[in-house]
Structure formats: C-alpha cells, structure tokens
Amino acid sequence: MAFWTYILLCADGLYYTGHTDNLEYRIGQHQSGQIEGFTSSRLPVRLMWSQDFPTRFEALDAEMRIKKWSRAKKEALIRGDWQAMNHFAKPPHERPPSPFASSEVEMPIGRAPTMGVSTSLDTNGHGTPAKSGRGEE
Length: 137
Known about the structure:
Elements: E1 3-10, E2 15-20, H1 23-32, E3 45-53, H2 56-67, H3 71-79, H4 82-88
Helix pairs in contact: 3-4
C-alpha cells in the first residue's frame, strides 16, 4: 500500500500540505468541502504536488517537514527546481546572493500574499514559514 504527501493550492493562494493513503479520494474530499478546517473555506483547491511513500510514517514525516518550509521553498519543490531547493534549505542569513532574490521575500506568519500565484508556478516574491498544525501558507 502506498501513502502520499501532497500540496494543494487553495483559491485564496495559500498552500495546504497533507498526507493520505488514497490520494484521489482525499483530494475529492477536500474539493467537496467534506473535510472541515483549513481547505473547506478556501475552495476550490488544486493539487500542485504529490509523492508516494512506502509507509504512513514516511508520508507524515514529509508532511511535517514541508509544513515548516517557506512559500518559496514549497514552490521550488512544486517546480522541481532542485537548485532553488538547495538555496532555500539554508537559513536566510547564510544564503549567498542569488538569482532567486525576488523569491526570498518572507512575510510574517499568517499573512496571505498580496497577489495571486502564477499558473506557471513561478514564485510571486512572497514566502512565509509554515504554521504548525493542519493549515499553512
């Protein structure tokens, strides 16, 4: 049995990260509002990224790690941009100047971006550390 970690883009531009053992069914639950909480008031949602894992523990571990990432790092993962992922893995004060400078702007926790996310998955210049718990930026 496979377990999945996934990232959804909500209608308000925020990201939600979760894990499940049935990805298609779980996305349907989010999309229909059956799951009370973070996504139910931010419909519709769109699946942006997913990865399968052999155990629930590994999927949950990936979910918890991703929830702590900045928006810019999540968007680098979604794009499959490993150079940017490596860059954002370093604390901001340890990062050298880079071509990702416009993506490194970080906002306080709980603030939504002032502009929508590009459909090309380019970063919009905003990132924020994820809140612990189920919902996040």
